[in-house]
């Protein structure tokens, strides 16, 4: 393969041109250029096999060079070499169909590896059946077009579909990441070349489909080869740290028209990868039989964790989350289900905290949701959820340990100072900066009475004092103590004291007279 090297720095282009590693992969530098305009003339004349170009150059930059050559030589592979890390350049490179984007400073191995991927992919390009995958992945209402395609190509046959996808960690800063999916194809194609079963491949947004065709082999051989091929693909990916991958395997399908169903199965497989971890082989046949009683067990786990939070039981929460992890493995929950469940746990924890009058800060709320939605491995996600729940438990435990008697005492003090007015539980809770339902439970637990009982009893005691005054009638004593309905006051007073307000006033007057 003949390479055209373009860079405005003489030292760099001379270094690349003189690299002895090119001979090892049967490549050579056909020409060098100092800017895009010079390179454009050379490319039109020499028709190189690969363009390796810098981006920022005088006269004509690498992006404009690539755009021009893409129109004139659309099959020319382009590798960008730049000292700039801005993702805008990577996005432009992807739009122009670049096969790689290598940042300076670089080592010779980076360039050799990138060119090798292009070489391998071009040598095995016949294996790609992009047209087939684009058509047959469409919904069933396009089956007429698919049958027309089958009439012009090999007849319909059974198949098993594999899907290899990178075990990418969301949020990592990997400057090669925009091109890793393309590297995946070049890495795996030599493995597929050795398969004993004929196969077609098709690229996807983040991975590679491999269709094992069953026209010449029996069903058992087809399924066995699918598993062995998946293992070999993972082993090959493990040789390159940035290409660690997992592979899903569909059911054996009887017709190529079933490709949309096989793709759906593989989507479920890749969601299940969250449970198994990186570098996993996930067969749909193995996971479809364990999806039962999921919602019941998830709801039970959520309620149990909420109960443990209310008592601030940190060890209990840790053990319960371990059980949740095992439950997820058992029921075969998918990625979305797991994310929703973890978000449900977070929301339940925040709700419990609100019951205790505790408010998580907005940054914490946002951070945990971002962590949950970006995690692709269950252990990472559960670790984040555990940290949130243990933090909530610690705050609640501290409140539970020290707050009840203090809250009751402060509630009684507020009642004693403001019983005459329109006093409500909600108003007292707001003044104490706690949730009113939590305050209600604390009062009941500590005193055996409700908030209204404490309020009425305080008002009755005040009314009893008022009734001792000679210048105050019974109904006046009631209103002065905060009662707005004399009939209600009279019934409550008799229930608590044992006699009516008027009788109590007479008895008190008689006792005073005898003294």
From TrEMBL:
Species of provenance = Paenibacillus spongiae
Q: Which residues form the Response regulatory domain?
A: 2-119
The HTH araC/xylS-type domain, residue ranges: 409-507
Per the record, residues carrying 4-aspartylphosphate are 54
* Keyword field: DNA-binding, Phosphoprotein, Transcription, Transcription regulation
| SMART domains found in the cross-reference section | HTH_ARAC, REC
Membrane-spanning intervals of the chain: none
What PANTHER family does the entry give?
ARAC-FAMILY TRANSCRIPTIONAL REGULATOR, HTH-TYPE TRANSCRIPTIONAL REGULATOR EXSA
Name used for this protein in its record: Response regulator
Q: Does the keyword Lyase belong to this entry?
A: no
The keyword Flavoprotein is assigned to this record: no
- What PROSITE patterns does the annotation carry? HTH_ARAC_FAMILY_2, RESPONSE_REGULATORY
Q: Which InterPro entries match?
A: CheY-like_superfamily, Homeodomain-like_sf, HTH_AraC, Sig_transdc_resp-reg_receiver
Organism classification: Bacteria, Bacillati, Bacillota, Bacilli, Bacillales
């Amino acid at each position: 393969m003949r390479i055209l090297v373009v860079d405005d720095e003489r030292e760099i282009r001379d270094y690349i041109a003189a690299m002895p590693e090119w001979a090892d992969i049967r490549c050579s530098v056909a020409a060098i250029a100092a800017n895009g305009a010079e390179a454009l003339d050379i490319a039109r004349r020499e028709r190189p096999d690969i363009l390796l170009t810098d981006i920022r150059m005088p006269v004509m930059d690498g992006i404009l060079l690539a755009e021009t050559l893409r129109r004139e030589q659309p099959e020319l592979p382009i590798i960008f070499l730049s000292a700039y890390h801005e993702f805008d350049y990577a996005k432009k490179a992807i739009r122009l169909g670049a096969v790689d984007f290598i940042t300076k400073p670089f080592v010779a191995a980076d360039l050799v590896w990138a060119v090798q991927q292009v070489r391998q992919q071009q040598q095995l390009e016949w294996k790609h059946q992009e047209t087939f995958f684009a058509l047959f992945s469409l919904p069933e209402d396009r089956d007429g077009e698919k049958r027309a395609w089958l009439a012009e190509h090999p007849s319909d046959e059974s198949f098993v579909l594999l899907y290899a996808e990178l075990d990418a960690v969301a949020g990592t800063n990997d400057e090669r990441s925009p091109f890793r999916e393309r590297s995946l194809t070049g890495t795996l194609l030599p493995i597929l070349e050795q398969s004993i079963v004929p196969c077609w491949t098709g690229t996807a947004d983040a991975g590679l489909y491999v269709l094992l065709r069953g026209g010449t082999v029996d069903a058992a051989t087809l399924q066995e080869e699918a598993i062995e091929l998946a293992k070999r693909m993972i082993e090959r990916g493990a040789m390159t740290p940035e290409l660690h991958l997992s592979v899903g395997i569909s059911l054996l399908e009887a017709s190529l028209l079933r490709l949309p169903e096989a793709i759906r199965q593989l989507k479920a497989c890749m969601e299940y990868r969250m449970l198994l971890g990186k570098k996993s082989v996930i067969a749909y046949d193995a996971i479809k039989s364990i999806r039962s009683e999921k919602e019941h067990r998830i709801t039970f786990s959520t309620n149990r964790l909420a109960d443990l939070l209310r008592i601030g039981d940190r060890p209990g929460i840790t053990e319960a989350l371990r059980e949740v992890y095992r439950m997820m493995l058992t029921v075969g929950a998918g990625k979305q289900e797991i994310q929703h469940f973890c978000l449900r746990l977070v929301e339940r924890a925040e709700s419990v905290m609100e019951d205790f009058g505790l408010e998580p800060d907005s940054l914490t709320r946002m951070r945990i949701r971002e962590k949950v939605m970006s995690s692709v491995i269950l252990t990472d996600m559960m670790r984040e959820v555990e940290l949130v729940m243990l933090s909530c438990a610690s705050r609640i435990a501290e409140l539970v340990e020290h707050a009840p008697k203090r809250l009751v005492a402060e509630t009684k003090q507020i009642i004693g100072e403001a019983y005459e007015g329109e006093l409500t539980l909600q108003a007292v809770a707001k003044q104490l900066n706690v949730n009113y339902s939590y305050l209600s439970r604390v009062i009941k637990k500590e005193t055996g009475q409700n908030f209204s009982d404490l309020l009425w009893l305080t008002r009755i005691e005040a009314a009893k004092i008022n009734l001792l005054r000679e210048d105050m009638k019974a109904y006046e004593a009631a209103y002065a103590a905060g009662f707005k309905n004399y009939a209600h006051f009279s019934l409550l007073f008799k229930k608590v004291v044992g006699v009516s307000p008027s009788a109590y006033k007479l008895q008190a007057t008689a006792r005073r007279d005898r003294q």
